[in-house]
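Researcher: Structure prediction, please.
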Amino acid sequence: MSSFDPRQLAEIDPKQISAAEFEELLTAASQQAGEPGATEGLEAIDPAAFARLIGRARKDQLEAVMSSPVRSIVLDQILRRFADHYRAGDPRPPKVIHWKITGRPDGGTDDFELVLYGDRCEANAVAQHGADTTIILGGPEFLLLTSGNGKPTTMFMTGKLKVRGDLGLAAVLAKIFVIPTS
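Model: Predicted structure follows.
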């Protein structure tokens, strides 16, 4: 698939393809960075285009991606972009948010943390600090939430999103981050 350009994902209408084909497309896009001479993979996709792709995808397609090996690559890309979308302000004592993304193929969770300092956001693939807030949700819900296609209040009220600790901090996340929208 060396001729596949990950930016083509923005042109695809997921409703026209199967869940397996959707997963294959994201897998092909993620593999571009691993090919000799390649410098682009999922990171080449504009966040708004990715948000549009996720917003148009069916639930079965999101579930297929989040239960496949490409899950870790997608989560890594989202984690690396948190700092880019942070609304920096004045320096202040840090607030720590732990994320637990359930539904990993082996039955486990993917855990990471965000440390919000006011003037910057640090994203860590491994928790290094005690959490002020822990947010727990499934993989498809995480994709919808971080792409601006999910409603956190609805997810919380229906039990698809759980919060442990400082509920107020979790409630203001949408104001702390510029969430790409479709």
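Model: The mean pLDDT is 86.
Researcher: Thanks, that helps.
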